[in-house]
Amino acid sequence: MSKLTDKAKGISFDDVDEPTPEVPADRPRTAIGAISASIAMGRGVEAENRELRAKLEHFEDATVVELLDPKRIKPSRFANRHELSFAGADFEGLKAEIAGTGRNVQPIKVRRIGQGADGKDEFEIAFGHRRHRACLELGIPVAAIIDELSDAQLFSEMERENRERQDLSPWEQGVMYKRAIDEGLFPSLRKLASSIGAQVGNVSTAVQLASLPAEVVNAFPSPLSLQFRWGSVLKAAVDKNPDAVAVLAAELAAMTPKLPAKEVLARLTGGPAASSRSAPTAFKANGKVVGNWDQDPKGNVVVRIKAGALPAAKERRLREFLEKLLE
C-alpha cells in the first residue's frame, strides 16, 4: 500500500499548457476590418488579372517562327518570280549567306493549304520564294511564319513585302498584278492599287509590260531587263503595227547573242538607235550554226566560234590568214 501511495504522490495534477495557435497579425478582428481586407484583396486580384491579360496579349502578338520542310511548301499561284531570279550571282550570294548561318535569318511567310497523302500539313508561300528555293537547294529546313490568310491577304502581303525590298523587276510586278486581275482577286486596277498602297499609274504601267506579246518579251535578253518607262512606247508600237513588230521581234529573239535591251527597244519602236547596229551574221557548218560575225555601233568587229567547232590546226590557219589580211 505504501508503494501505491508513493506512486500517487509523483503524479502532477497541474494543468498542462497547450500551445496557443498564432493569430496572423493582419487578420481583421472586426466585421469592418474583414470588409476592408476583402476589398483590398479584390483590388490585388484585379491588378494581377490586368498584368496576366497584358502578358497574354503580348504572347498572342508575338511572332512564332517554325522550321519547316521546304519540300512541303509550294510556290503561290500568284508567284511573281521569274526563273532567272533563282540564278546568277545574287541568288548564289543569298544561298551562301543562308548556308553560313545554317538557316534563313529572315523567315518566310506561309499558309496551310491542306495535308499530303501522308497526313502531314502542306503550305503555300505568301512571300519569301527565293529564301525558300535557297533552303530547298541546300537541303535544310526553312524558317517560316504560319498565318491564316485569304487569297487577297496573301497577295497583298506578297506584293508589299517584295516592293519594300525593291528587288522585283517591273515585269515581275506586272505579271503578279495581271494574274490577280485575271483571276478576279480584285475587280479593277484601282481596287488592287488601293489594297496594296500603290499608285494606280505604276500598277497600270507594270500591267502594260506584262501584257506585251510573248514574242516581244522574248526579243529582250531577259524579261527582267524591261523598264517601267518602256511600257507605253512598246504598247504603242504593238498597237500601231502588230504584225510588223511581231516579225521583227522574232528576228531579234533568234539572234545569238541577243542585242542589249536598249537596242532591242530602239529597233522595236523605231527609235534613233534602231539602225546603229546590224544583226550578227551566223556561220554554219553542215547545216548547224557554229559561230557568228558581229559588229557593234562603233564599228568594232567580233568573230565568235563555238568551242570545239574549230580544230587546233584550222585555228592556227585562221590566225595566220587574219594576220596576212590585215597587213
Automatic annotation (TrEMBL):
<dbReference type="InterPro" id="IPR050336">
    <property type="entry name" value="Chromosome_partition/occlusion"/>
</dbReference>
<dbReference type="InterPro" id="IPR037972">
    <property type="entry name" value="RepB_N"/>
</dbReference>
<dbReference type="InterPro" id="IPR004437">
    <property type="entry name" value="ParB/RepB/Spo0J"/>
</dbReference>
<dbReference type="GO" id="GO:0007059">
    <property type="term" value="P:chromosome segregation"/>
</dbReference>
<comment type="similarity">
    <text>Belongs to the ParB family.</text>
</comment>
<feature type="domain" description="ParB-like N-terminal">
    <location>
        <begin position="66"/>
        <end position="163"/>
    </location>
</feature>
<dbReference type="Pfam" id="PF02195">
    <property type="entry name" value="ParB_N"/>
</dbReference>
<dbReference type="GO" id="GO:0003677">
    <property type="term" value="F:DNA binding"/>
</dbReference>
<protein>
    <recommendedName>
        <fullName>ParB-like N-terminal domain-containing protein</fullName>
    </recommendedName>
</protein>
<dbReference type="GO" id="GO:0005694">
    <property type="term" value="C:chromosome"/>
</dbReference>
<dbReference type="InterPro" id="IPR036086">
    <property type="entry name" value="ParB/Sulfiredoxin_sf"/>
</dbReference>
<dbReference type="InterPro" id="IPR003115">
    <property type="entry name" value="ParB_N"/>
</dbReference>
<feature type="region of interest" description="Disordered">
    <location>
        <begin position="1"/>
        <end position="27"/>
    </location>
</feature>
